[in-house]
User: Fold these one by one.
Assistant:
Number 1:
Amino acid sequence: MKTTKTNWAQFIPLVTVFFFWGFVAASNDILIPVFKKAFHLSQAQSQLVAFTFYIAYTVGSLIYLLISYLIKGDLINRIGYKNSLALGLLISALGTLLFYPAANLGSFPLMLSGLFIVALGFSLQQTVANPLAIVLGPITTGSQRLTMAGGINNLGTTIGPLIVSFAIFGAATSTTTEMSIESVKIPYLILGLAFLLVAILLKFSSLPDKPELEIESDSVESSIRSSSLKYPQLILGMVAIFIYVGVEVATASNLPAYMEKNLGFLTKDIAPYISLYWASMMIGRWTGAVEAFTDKMSTQKILRFVAPYLAFGIFLTVNAIAKHDLTPFYVYALIILVLIGADIASKGNPARMIFIFSGLGIIALIIGMSTTGMISVYAFISVGLFCSTQWPCIFTLALSGLGKHTSQGSSFLIMMIMGGGFVSLLQGYIADIYTIQSSYFIDILCFIYLLFFAWRVSKILKLQGINFDKQISSGH
């Protein structure tokens, strides 16, 4: 990769789609308890919202691979990256239109269909945007750039639950089912219009149509192996993405039911806590992205403390505007110090970061399962901090050394986002049989695999001549 610095003129328009993914995904956590009451669903049935949304990513990836096979060429390369992003946004916009008849008819299947089509468009956008974020600058800061894009994603996840919650409960606080469901359609129609506007923006942006998407493009391995599936790091990475998205989504999507059933929260009062969970992802990603901003070690040290509290400040500001009581959230500033320490200890190595953060995720879940009251809630919310940088680290490690197979490998990783649906559904079933609090044991198992992935893949990459400690020291 010849690029020596981040191309901000291209990177900034790209991250708008990352914002949308976060906005919709986090809003689902507000829709789940609303749909559960409105349609009289069990906890497992309510998780069909998450399942439908995330399984669409897999279906979208399979459609992409099938079309590429039929046309005997890569679909995205054929129509161009900008056109692919615009097409993905158009598909998502069509999905939002279904919310209107679904709300009017009070139809749960039609609501799920709308979410499915929205996520189908997201699947195409993700396949294009993730590797694109990595290559719009030097490869040594590719992981940090993807982390930064993830931070914008989590700006959407922080705002999304609050806006959707306000749309449902703000104007009319009546708890009648029909009114709550009816009020869902307006924010999603506005979202559809935003999709169309951004599609036009990206179409006329300076983003490259056919960028060079080869990570470690001079790798000898890439010229020998015939497919991305021949690389053990990709296979392990596919499982890791499935597991990671699973634990990230399941932790948040089962939290409202826990707070309602165990702590007596009203559905309309849960939104700030869901917002804090997703804000935790933003806090962690802004912290992990500081190396993409500057090469100066002294500035990086300062930013490692400034960035997370700036992100936390955004969460507090947004909730202050929404007129929520901020008093319960100030204590979270102390938990953020744990994140900063973990980030410093990882020294920018993606495998080491996954290992440390997964260990802390396990500790947070154990505390959440073994305590009661708000301590358990903050423990579960802090899982967001320790999930925050997992995606870009897994993505970077899984694609390292793939060379010309990078684009294909990316589509296989996006396919595994379905883990968000499967793990949420499994946890929902366990919660129905036992308790919601005990169901979080599933997430501990997920983190144990991520520990194994970090250890194993670092050894595999070293055997292929890829050492991130050396790359990082030479890159900075």
Number 2:
Amino acid sequence: MDCLRDHLLGCGGERMAMLVVPNFWDRSPIVRGSAFAARLRAWAAEGVEMFLHGYVHRDDAQHTSRIARFKSRQLTAGEGEFLGLSHFEATVRIEMGRRLLEDVTGQPIAGFVAPAWLYGPSAKRALADAAIDLAEDHWRVWNPATEATLAYSPVITWATRTQARMASSLAVASVARRLAPFRIMRVGVHPGDCGEPKVMSSIAETVSTLRRSRVVSRYADLKADAACAS
């Protein structure tokens, strides 16, 4: 995490958000009072926006619809935790995760991002009921409580699970950062990117290229803009 954060700071990504999984795959729980919890609190105090990123990240649902099965198998490798949850289970995981993250950081969460950006209908209702005011998927940022779209904005991100996926993501990033037709662009990175020099170089080039014609900003700015417009 420190490696990736330092890399982003070095190429001009001085404002960033972190997506935090409370108990990754039921194997890595965030423990109150631990060294990692203290680091999260310090990062939040420095201005890093902390998003709840599911609860365990793993998708254990038995999907009944053909579309959901396709998304679960083709768009992610068993990581779409909130794609098939019931309203009750989604609510429980949101509230448990929010309580833990806010307790650890000492600040309200900035919003919620579903693992693999995959949301089932029940998950969306649970977010609205929980008064979560910011979420995102591959193409937009919105307020689940009001359904208002805060920005239409694609994400440039990288995949390192296989050589083929990595080559594809490098090619897409190369084109997207040069064309960048949207006013607002998002850049999403993962700790695993640190192990791939080509990906790290692509991240640096993407951030540097985009910031030549844009201001590096925060999700909070989208909320503020929406509030001013309403």
Number 3:
Amino acid sequence: MSDVVRLIENNRRWAAHRTRVDPDFFPRLSRQQAPQYLWIGCADSRVPANEIVGLDPGELFVHRNVANLVLHTDLNCLSVLQYAVEVLRVRHVIVCGHYGCGGVLAAMQDRSLGLIDNWLRHLRDLHHEHEAALAATAPEARPDRLCELNVMRQVENLCHTTIVQDAWHRGGALSVHGWIYGLHDGLLRDLGVSRSSAAEVRRSHRVRS
């Protein structure tokens, strides 16, 4: 129990420090949240979203799951996306993966892991789709490359949702980005797959032509 109590004590010190630095911080935060960004990231404890981009509470709306997947059957993720886009009016949706992702590494293994196999099926399909290209990559670089390919695929999946496309058709200033984080150096890298309009989505995946 002492480990849990320590967290409560840490919270008390943190809250007291924030109040000393900015006495109106918590009253202001409780009145509204108006973030410009939605972060869809991995549940990995080594990737603290707010901290690595230097934003305070209230400035980044966050959804996290194993391997930062955006699935059309995941009502949790889609509900977060809809709220962020239609209610909070965020201007940027960021999919952020990370090198050394345990979910990606697990998807590359040819063995059953139990319940999570159902979730990893999407990553295993992606691995199979790029099997030839990955085989031509140095073995030690394959996991990192699949981490990048995964982020790129999730950006596509986001852009295929009715939520994002409807926002674009309404003329909303919404952009979707794909980034990856290096656990070894703490740096973010832009994978260059940003999208800001339905015209940048394949015609076959547009909700409206």
Number 4:
Amino acid sequence: MNFYNDRYGLKSSIQNSIDTTPPPKGLHILAKPIGPLCNLSCDYCFYLEKKALYKNDEEFRMTDEVLTAYIHQYITLQPTPEVEFVWQGGEPTLMGLPFYKRVVELQSQYADQKNITNVLQTNGTLLTEEWCRFLKRHDFFVGVSLDGPRDIHDRYRRDRNGKGSFEQVMAGLQMLQHFGVKYNVLASVGRETARRPLEVYQFLKQCGVEFIQFAPIVERIPGKTSRRSGLSLAGPAVLDKPEPETEVTPWTVLPEEYGAFLIAIYEEWVRQDVGKMFVMNFEWALNAWLGEPSPVCVHARQCGGSLVLEHNGDVYACDHFVYPAHRLGNILTDSPHDLAEQSRNAGFGIAKEKALPGYCRECAVLAACRGGCPKHRFSMTPGDEPGLHYLCPGYKAFFSHIRKYLHAMAQLIENDLPVSFIMKVIQGPLIVKKSN
């Protein structure tokens, strides 16, 4: 349910589909047609190293056989009248426009009166006028990766020669705006970024961006016992088991600073921009406060229903779990419906809830957090229980801080008033503590 639709009293929101899962009985597959290949070499990217899993593959390009099987089965087996395709990478535009023209052709062929939508997550550097005309013509929704002003963005998002990508991304963003393509911005929050929240937020406002999602960067350095052949980052946490090797990468955001980052932006947004700027992290929090199921897997009670399709047809249980142990099958030989059921029945999703430590079960903000993504539950609770999410202190601070605003918003909704009225309810000057 999208609470920005009319509730803010100004305009409807574009549904952020990049990290969104459909109703439990539906299928959701995120496709990576170019695998982990990318024209950039971002420091914090957890997917570039996945090339090591396909050592005999030089091209990393989805064949027409795999594409056809995917589109046909995905549409046919989808129980809902709307079928959403999500294309990601790596950098999916490296497949070239002819590939996506073929996508649209196959979707039209197999649509069978269902409404087909497409989402493309891109770094924006390869967008051209031809690309934008195509995206507009076929109503693609585009997610653009942009972390903030030039120095913040270029700190981590550089090409293979070490040159920043800011100028190319901005050119791509402006082209999307010029052609009227629907888009949002996915801003990754690394360690340095978290210390400059209002700079990031104000910059995105000045760029004319209205729809934003903030994604925290969390990755670990593998120790001797957990290092995987060819991979430089640690694998997912093992739920319900101690994780002694918890050294994070230098770019990983610090928990308390991530919470402070969200709080600072929320305090600005709730006073000035409700109904004008749409921050998905804030929408998810309101959604949880109203007792609705989470529209995003990270804060859902359970997970396991959102699969990942690799370029060669391999299907994995989750984008963050593309490791041999979590491979479910292949689109050329297995039914997507069966693979989704296999993921759920294997305990991948249920374990997220069952493995919660007692510390989480007794937490006042459990309904909003739900323990976070299982991949990052490698910390220990104050009582030395395993399975605590690394960002717990930040999540707890943020969700606790905004409860007073969520309560007021809920009252507005109950009285059939736009949530944007919250700005009239709040009085007094904006006070934001500076981060150390």
